[in-house]
Amino acid sequence: MNASKLCHALKHCLGHEFGWEIIGDLIRWERMKALIFDLDGTLVDSVYAHVLAWQVAFAEAGMPIDGWRLHRRMGMSGGLFKRAVMRELGRTISLPKLQTLDKRHGELFHKFLPHPRPLPGAVQLLRFLRKNRVIHGVATSNQRPHINSSLKALGIPERTVVVERGDVVRAKPEPDLFLECQKRLGVEATDC
After folding, report:
1. C-alpha closest to that of 74 among 42, 103, 118
2. For the chain, how are helix, strand and coil distributed in percent, rounded to 5?
3. Which of 139, 145, 144, 143 is closest to 177 using CA atoms?
4. Does residue 127 share a domain with residue 181?
5. One domain for residues 157 and 171
6. For 70-118, what is each residue's pLDDT tens digit?
7. Measured on CA atoms in the order 39, 44, 47, 52, is the torsion positive or negative?
8. What is the pTM of this model?
9. Final residue of a domain: which of 89, 112, 135?
10. Which of 142, 144, 153, 145 is CA-nearest to residue 177?
């Protein structure tokens, strides 16, 4: 498959034209062998539900925090995220309270967003990649069972490589999730 075919597919999936910088990226992509996608906020519209769930969970635990302070940290691994928020609040928290906070976030997230919605064009793009045998995978700081409904909404089959937080020692902002995904896809990092 060449870059112009991918560009046409992306235009069709996402429903709009691309700027020249993206066309240039696609031309360079022609030399790439694989694509790795993040999940929350890239393929699925779930970031704001996570922010709200964390905001309510922290408030219920007696630690109110502004949503924008949480939003700017989305994408970090759970442990790193919570440590950064606690530093920002100037607080410490015991492991049992941290686990309770984590559990409450999960409950609230599923209450606020019981059926995650794919971002526009995500399902079509993934379908196009599978149909054209373009190697691809997902690398996310989130983990099962929390990601199951998102993967289902995207129509991602079981055989797709999905690397989650528990699969690596260090998560984002470290590159370990993406490097593990690249390894499981059987390609070099420079080919992604």
Report:
1. 42
2. 55, 10, 40
3. 139
4. yes
5. yes
6. 887 877 666 777 777 888 888 887 878 888 888 898 899 889 988 899 9
7. negative
8. 0.75
9. 112
10. 142
Distance between CA atoms of residues 90 and 97, nearest Å: 16
- Which tokens sit at 40? 């929350």
Instruction: Count up the domains in the chain and report the number.
Output: 3
pLDDT, tens digit, 9 for 90 and up, residues 115-142: 899 998 899 889 988 888 889 999 998 8
Place of tokens 């049992």: 96
- Cα separation of 149 and 121, whole Å? 18
Instruction: For residue 9, give its domain range.
Output: 1-31
Are residues 55 and 139 located together in one domain of the fold?
A: no
For 55, the enclosing helix (H) or strand (E) is helix 47-60
Kindly report the CATH number assigned to the domain that includes residue 144: 3.40.50.1000
**Of 112, 128, 154, which residue constitutes the final position of a domain?**
112
The answer to whether residues 2 and 30 touch, using CB atoms and an 8 Å cutoff, is yes
The total number of residues shown for the chain amounts to 192
